[in-house]
Structure to design on (120 residues):
């Protein structure tokens, strides 16, 4: 079992090669990890490579706390420290109103009535 506060690198998945820290042990197989470029989530211990460094982590620490701990320890660079930002409601250019197509006015055609012969 890996100790809480152990610094690791991810060895599998889309976050492969990124530094993270163990925030919580779930069981012998899974832990909760987080880091500057690693989302806080459950991770299999087999997908982590331990580094010879441990940090003191408070219980219930967030991703921002983990990022700050790693930055203070000098394990991540400044550019790596910033997490991807979520889209915000930035001012977007106003959309131009779409003109609706006008209905064509049909000219009334002269409808000729056929005369039906009277029945005898």
């Amino acid at each position: 079992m890996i100790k809480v506060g152990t610094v690791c690198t991810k060895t599998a998945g889309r976050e492969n090669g990124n530094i993270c820290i163990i925030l919580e042990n779930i069981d012998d197989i899974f832990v909760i990890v987080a880091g500057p470029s690693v989302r806080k989530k459950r991770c299999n211990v087999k997908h982590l490579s331990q580094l010879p460094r441990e940090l003191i982590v408070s219980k219930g620490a967030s991703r921002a706390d983990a990022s700050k701990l790693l930055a203070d320890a000098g394990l991540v660079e400044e550019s790596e420290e910033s997490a991807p930002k979520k889209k915000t409601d930035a001012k977007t250019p106003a959309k131009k109103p779409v003109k609706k197509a006008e209905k064509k006015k049909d000219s009334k055609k002269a409808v000729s009535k056929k005369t039906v012969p009277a029945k005898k």
Summary: The CA atoms of residues 113 and 119 lie 17 Å apart. The mean pLDDT is 82.
